[in-house]
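Operator note (shift B, R.M.): manual run for Fe-S cluster assembly transcriptional regulator IscR requested after the automated queue skipped it. Running by hand, logging everything below so the morning shift can see what happened. Input copied straight from the record, untouched. If output looks odd, do not overwrite the archive copy; leave it for review.
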Amino acid sequence: MRLTTKGRYAVTAILDLALHGRGSPISLADISARQDISLSYLEQLFARLRRKGLVTSVRGPGGGYLLARAPKDISVASVIDAVNESIDATRCQGTGDCQQGTTCLTHHLWSDLSDVIHDFLDRITLEELMHRHDVQRIASRQQDSASQIAVLPIAHTS
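Run finished. Output pasted below as returned.
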């Protein structure tokens, strides 16, 4: 199966937004710091998420991003789909030309698996992930780490 970092990072970043946003815009710099995802990469992902109506942007001081829908209305599959990522277990990226231009013996098996995985991820919402104890524990640890980094004194050289 092929799910690249684009899909994984998009899900991670929008889950971070759902956990920390709570009605206030969250900057991509904050998400970048907590999740160790490059800011420029997040900008690309959030542009796609915004175009698909999953997030909205708020400009100006204190700006950032908000979820455009309730967490219960955003599935993991919709996030992956929004960044043009495919969940594809086939060797041919679903085209059916896997064996010298024709369909291979197991193409339909892997295609069916791709559909099952997509359906599975479509049934999982951000809200469900937000309520998982492991997710809450990790988010708390990341927030604490980000807070400690923000208050570290700057060393002055003489």
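Quick read of the result: The domain at 5-85+123-150 is CATH 1.10.10.10 (Arc Repressor Mutant, subunit A). The CA atoms of residues 5 and 62 lie 29 Å apart.
Leaving this for review. - R.M.
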